[in-house]
Q: What sequence folds into this?
């Protein structure tokens, strides 16, 4: 068994175990056999059967699945961003979509407008349009360095807007701060559907272009190996940014998953995208699922705090190791 | 002179300009199977630009390039990459793919998006690695290679493409003499297999020794020496703005070396 197969086997085996752990644990203990009973009942079309059923079906399931799908989407996007932009520090937030979402959400919270998610998504999309407009060169070509710079600049401008809103927000400032740190407490089945769609779209689109991604990430001249570089870059960068907008608008800005999961897996199984993408999908999903479980067991810490606490030192270690 | 041979690549009235500056100014040339053509010219004369335009991987602002009878711009990028391979001057590598993985990328254009890479593809990749003295390097990350080894990986990747036309941009700039000569011996073997090779060079002597035909690029235009024997001190002085001496050694090898002061 080679490293790729081993990594795949470990992640696939960890999947049911992790979900199991997350679903049974909590203030209200639900036994494994009860989970099967409730699941069977719900899937056969039964309606709400008491509090325990509601806790499992309406709270724990959506939360666990949303956390997993969000982590999967962020990790896959991270793999694609790093490969396409040939920059190890690139991540799903590189084109500013997270800061845009944060500003949108902050506006909605400060002025107590309805629909934080809608504002966040709109902010994220507008930022993407702005960064894309500024980042592409006059000939219409995609220049990674320009795009990254445009993302950094626009993000820092929007970041100061968020700071200003925090000052203006009065009592709402705590709500803004909590939103920014990310959380899955509000996850519903709608969130599950949207974040799963985002995560799977990124995975399958990435797999569709995996050879092109390999060629671009290898640093070769892509055109001489039959790759239409601009088309691949435009399609994947926009698709990943959109998917990231979707998950960030619902769950807040959860850092480090899109950076650490791809790097860890690339170290383990190498840079080939054919296996790196599905493994990152699984690995990122599991990472965020467990981080959220940890956050929940520590008295509902914002999950973004935990991912930064785990991810930051892990990234330092990766950096140290790669000297 | 009339050639009654099949034309592999035919460029007509090629123009490339960067802003106001015209780099390639109406170049026409033909490349034939079983031939090594050297492209010489001073720094900045547009050798790389011309190669990129001929392969369809760079700018082209006018003119036509026909590759095996088809206009290059009507071919998909992938299809074109099964007919012409390019070894660029800069062989930078990004992520740490292994040498074998990198050379296998040369098989992607033939395999297509989802075509399986079969043992035959791996055989071709390993053969290509053997041709450039890279056996035993299969699992080495390309990011840990020396400049010369990296250049040979790029060459092996292009060989794995199995194209009838190979364009090389300074393929020996990072190679020691042994590997540089080995590369030209390889090019001769490829010529035997009826491939057409266009190689941009700085080293006039490599061109004199190995090329069947020499093209000089200067001021955006091509001047042709139909055989290396026609390359003399006058031609070289006109192209490179410096006096040259060309002498014949015992054994028939001709050597050229720049002499005296620059002419401008």
A:
């Amino acid at each position: 068994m080679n490293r790729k197969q081993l990594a795949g086997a470990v992640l696939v085996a960890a999947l049911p175990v992790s979900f199991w752990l997350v679903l049974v644990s909590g203030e209200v203990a639900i036994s494994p056999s009860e989970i099967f009973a409730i699941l069977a009942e719900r899937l056969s079309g039964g309606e709400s059967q008491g509090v325990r059923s509601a806790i499992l079906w309406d709270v724990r399931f959506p939360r666990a699945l949303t956390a997993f799908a969000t982590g999967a989407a962020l990790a896959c996007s991270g793999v694609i961003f790093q490969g396409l932009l040939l920059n190890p520090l690139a991540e799903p937030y590189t084109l500013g979509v997270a800061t845009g979402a944060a500003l949108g959400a902050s506006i909605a919270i400060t002025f107590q407008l309805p629909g934080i998610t809608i504002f966040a998504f709109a902010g994220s999309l507008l930022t993407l349009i702005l960064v894309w407009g500024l980042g592409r060169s006059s000939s219409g070509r995609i220049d990674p360095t320009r795009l990254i710079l445009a993302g950094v600049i626009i993000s820092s401008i929007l970041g100061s807007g968020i700071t200003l809103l925090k000052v203006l927000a009065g009592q709402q400032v705590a709500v803004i701060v909590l939103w920014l740190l990310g959380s899955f407490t509000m996850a519903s089945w709608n969130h599950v559907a949207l974040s799963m769609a985002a995560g799977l779209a990124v995975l399958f689109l990435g797999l569709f272009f995996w050879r092109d991604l390999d060629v671009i990430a290898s640093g070769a001249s892509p055109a001489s190996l039959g790759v239409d570089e601009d088309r691949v870059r435009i399609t994947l960068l926009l698709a990943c940014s959109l998917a990231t907008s979707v998950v960030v608008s619902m769950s807040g800005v959860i850092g480090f998953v899109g950076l650490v999961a791809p790097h860890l897996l690339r170290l383990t199984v190498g840079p080939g995208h054919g296996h790196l993408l599905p493994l990152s999908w699984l690995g990122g999903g599991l990472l965020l699922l467990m981080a959220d479980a940890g956050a929940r067991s520590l008295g509902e810490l914002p999950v973004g705090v935990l991912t930064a606490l785990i991810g930051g030192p892990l990234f330092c270690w990766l950096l140290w190791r790669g000297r | 002179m009339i050639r009654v041979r099949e034309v592999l690549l035919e460029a007509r009235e090629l123009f490339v300009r960067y802003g106001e500056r015209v780099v390639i100014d109406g170049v026409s040339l033909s490349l034939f199977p079983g031939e090594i053509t050297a492209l010489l010219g001073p720094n900045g004369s547009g050798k790389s630009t011309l190669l990129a335009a001929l392969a369809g991987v760079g700018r082209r602002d006018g003119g036509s390039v026909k590759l095996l009878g088809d206009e290059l711009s009507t071919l998909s990028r992938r299809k074109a990459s099964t007919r012409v391979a390019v070894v660029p001057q800069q062989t930078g590598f990004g992520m740490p793919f292994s040498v074998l993985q990198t050379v296998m990328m040369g098989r992607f254009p033939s395999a297509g998006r989802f075509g399986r890479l079969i043992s035959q593809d791996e055989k071709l990749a390993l053969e290509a690695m053997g041709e450039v003295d890279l056996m035993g390097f299969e699992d080495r990350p390309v990011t840990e290679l020396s400049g010369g080894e990296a250049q040979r990986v790029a060459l092996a990747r292009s060989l794995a493409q199995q194209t009838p036309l190979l364009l090389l941009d300074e393929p020996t700039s990072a190679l020691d003499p042994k590997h540089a000569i080995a590369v030209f011996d390889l090019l001769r073997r490829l010529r035997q297999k009826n491939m057409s090779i266009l190689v941009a060079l700085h080293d006039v002597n490599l061109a004199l020794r190995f090329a069947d035909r020499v093209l000089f690029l200067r001021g955006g235009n091509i001047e042709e020496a139909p055989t290396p024997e026609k390359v003399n001190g006058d031609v070289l002085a006109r192209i490179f703005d410096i006096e040259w001496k060309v002498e014949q050694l015992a054994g028939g090898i001709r050597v050229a070396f720049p002499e005296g002061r620059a002419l401008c």
In short: The mean pLDDT of chain B is 90.
